[in-house]
Design goal:
The protein is mainly alpha-helical and 283 residues long. The chain has one domain. It is 76% helix and 5% strand. It contains eleven helices and two strands. The protein has a two-stranded antiparallel sheet.
Length: 283
Amino acid sequence: MNLFDAVLGVFISGFLGGFIGVITGLGGASISTPIMTSVFEIPVRLSIATSFSATVATSVNGSIRYIRERITNLEIGIYLMIPTLIGVVIGVDTNLSISPKIILITFGSFLILMTLLNYLRKSFENFLKRASHDLNISSFNKLIFEGEYYDAAEKKIIRYKAYNYVYAVPMMILSGFIAGLLGIGGGAVNVIALRDIMKTPVKVSVATSLFIIGFAGSVGSVMYWRRGFLDPLIASVLIPGIILGSYVGSTIFNKIRSRYIRIFFDIILFILSIRMILQGLGL
């Protein structure tokens, strides 16, 4: 593959990753990595490291606005950032110490799991609500966070309290580990920890998750770069592709029947995941 084909392949991977990621809700980096690996045959570690760096750009882009609007709870973000970064370090070190074939199998299996969870989301959320209901009476619940923000949609100030920090910590370590190992943001796990365990409002959960992802992606990207697996040229091509794809996807999303288009792209993602697993198995 010559330089032009490689650059074009990375940009297309970023665009499709951003486009499909917005529609499926899995995020651009989660999609661009299997496309780069399975379709354009870019080495898996290079794909993961490059996609991880892209999460920094995309998360910072959204996080700045949320911080200005005071939706992000910086106190919660800083407290949860520590266990997340621990997970990132462990995840990156694990990635660099295992066979690329194992990484391919793990990544493909993870994407299949996340796709299935999209269809089982309500049942999963109900389970978490039932499981976390009893946490509020725990003696560990002495650390309570308070916050408020102006909700433009409801045109009023939303005040809230957040609990269960101790129980959110393992989830954030897991989120960081997945992010470091597979080069994705880990936003889905972050939101579960913030919304379903700590009981923060949805908008606060998303905004604070983006804040954490920015730092997690920065640390992970530096670790991959120091090990020689992050190519700044490839990253500079991938990031605009993801941003453009995300913009186009979010624009089209409201004009189409989301259920059918989501099923279509989930099938594509499932095929890519199976191909990654088969690559890892040497088949």
